[in-house]
Amino acid sequence: MIRILLWLLGGVLLGGIVHLVTVLMMPGMASQDAYSRMATVAPVNRVVPIPAPTPEGAAMPFMDPAFAFAVCRYDLRAGPLKFSVPVSLAYTSVSFYSRTDVAYYAINDRAAGRRTIELDLMTTEQHNDLPGNEEITAADRLIVESPTLTGLIMIKALAPEPGMLPMARAAVANARCQAQSS
Known about the structure:
Elements: H1 2-29, H2 34-39, E1 47-50, E2 67-75, E3 81-86, E4 91-98, E5 103-108, H3 109-112, E6 116-122, H4 124-128, E7 143-145, E8 150-158, H5 165-173, E9 176-179
Parallel strand pairs: 6-7
Antiparallel strand pairs: 1-2, 2-8, 3-6, 3-9, 4-5, 4-8
């Protein structure tokens, strides 16, 4: 009897390990991750509005119809990016994702404290190569370090009422994501 229970316990333990490994490996093996989905609609280093979600489907999962969305698929191999987006009347947020869909930075209009969210996106190596300048302080220039050379920037603007959706779309459409001029 004890022998059967030990075999059963071993089988359950082995099944649990196989299940856990499978669940942890699935995101890395997925072929339709966010970056791959946006590769077909968003050129590199340019902001593209994402169509509003419909009951039949959405470009990205969990899209809220009360928000206007835009995306910038970035590539830092050519150098740092300058990113800016005007804030909407209600709420604007910007989220940064690595190529492997890991969120590494987010900022909203309240944290930015300005009418425009402006920042420089670069790798750690590019940041270390910047010349030291005492005149430029952290308050003047927000620098975000990307853990990967490629990734996504998601821009969201809230429309608290359906009539304000065109203004929210205009805010995200005026976002800029372009190579920094040296």
